[in-house]
Amino acid sequence: MNQFGNKNEFKKYGVLMVNLGTPETPTSRAVKRYLAKFLSDKRVVDKSRALWLPILYGIILPLRSLRVAKLYRNIWMDEGSPLLVYSRRQQQALAISLPDVVVELAMSYSQPVLKKAIARLFRKDITRLVILPMYPQYSCSTSAAVWDAVARIFVNYRKLPSISFIRDYAENPTYIAALAESVKRAFALRGKPDRLIISFHSIPQRYSDEGDDYLQRCNITYQALSAALDYPNKQIMMTFQSCFGRDPWLLPATDKTIRNLPSSGVQHVQVICPGFAADCLETLEEIQIQNRKIFKYAGGSVFYYIPALNDDVLHIELLRQLVIAELH
């Protein structure tokens, strides 16, 4: 008997965890290589290639890669990029919790390469595969991009296993409980703030207008987390970060919201970013460093970033439950 409740030596299970990606080193060359892959994906930027690629390679990459490399150096860990470090820890912890399952990790736009991760799984002769994009809230620019990339790779295989694709888990009770517990720990450590900001990565407003239900999925998480806390809902705010380019993006913007709070008497702010399964540039540098400076400069006193779930025990239990539900 195995943990799935039946003895079946003819089935081999596999899990493919997929996150966005990260530069291999905090250098402008590595950042340029990573951003070129990321920003060339039509799911991420869907503008005409004839218009977009000259702008990307002629303006954005030369200017942005040097600045972004400096930002990465602010958060780089001894083991490497935080996103990859925490993702590896998640993979290892999930594999321990699922001893009957082969667990592979891949990044959409960097190492470990998606194509190679799938090849390693298929060499194990798996018969059932669960694809787990590490994005709690679905978006065409993240989860759907994983689907596209995996489908392109599968074209080259004659034999495919049964495949389950986890679209997202925005309202999963274990996910909400894990988030609530991390907020409660922060409150116990720092005291209850004047405002709790729930910050999600933004997307272009046009994507939402054209049918991407990302905004609704974020709102579901926001509502569920707010309900799970012993904290006044009127003091909880949902905002959107990491806007890029000139097109309208989902609002209100996190940085502008934080800048305006001290003038209304808010002196203590805590921020959680539920859309990030692992800490990365957008949380550790943009929120923890840049937005703290914004808040303090505007007259605020206490700013605390609540870490992502990373390899927290409750987070690994959530991932385990997601996989088992698909395999059953």
Structure description:
This protein is of the alpha/beta class and 328 residues long. Among the domains are: 28-75; 173-306, Rossmann fold, CATH 3.40.50. Helices cover 47% and strands 14% of the residues. The chain is built from 11 helices and 8 strands. It has helices at residues 28-40, 49-75, 82-97, 114-123, 143-154, 173-190, 205-209, 214-228, 254-260, 281-297, 313-327; strands spanning 13-19, 101-107, 128-133, 162-165, 195-201, 236-241, 268-272, 302-306. The strands form 2 sheets. Strands 2-1-3-4 form a 4-stranded parallel beta sheet, sandwiched between helices. Strand 7 (268-272), helix 10 (281-297) and strand 8 form a beta-alpha-beta unit. Helix 3 crosses helix 11 and helix 6 crosses helix 8. The protein is globular. The two termini are 14 Å apart. The mean pLDDT is 96. Pathway: Porphyrin-containing compound metabolism; protoheme biosynthesis; protoheme from protoporphyrin-IX: step 1/1.
Main attributes?
8 strands; four-stranded parallel beta sheet; 328 residues; alpha/beta; Rossmann fold
Summarize the entry for a quick read.
The protein is of the alpha/beta class.
